[in-house]
Specification:
Elements (H helix, E strand, L loop, with lengths): L3 H10 L40 H30 L1
């Protein structure tokens, strides 16, 4: 678990708008909706084909999970460096 300060620093580092953080005054502030851009690139994940075995699919999932885990660790390290 991380402390409030560290969680806040991580959120701001990944682009959170600090004005959206509730305070005693604006605790019931309306939530802003974010419009999705139609210009986002298509997913880089391969589409599962019917002939693929469960083992192949599990291997693909494991590979993507490792990639996400590595990215998350890099982001955590970056935030910790910036927060100190």
């Amino acid at each position: 678990f991380t402390c409030r300060r560290c969680r806040y620093a991580k959120c701001v580092a990944v682009g959170m708008d600090s004005a959206c953080v509730p305070t005693a005054r604006n605790f019931r502030m309306p939530v802003k909706t974010i419009k999705k851009s139609s210009s986002k690139p298509a997913s880089k994940l391969p589409v599962a084909e019917a002939k693929q075995t469960p083992t192949v699919l599990l291997d693909m999932i494991a590979k993507e999970y490792k990639s996400l885990e590595t990215t998350a660790m890099r982001n955590d390290e970056k935030v910790m460096i910036e927060a100190s």
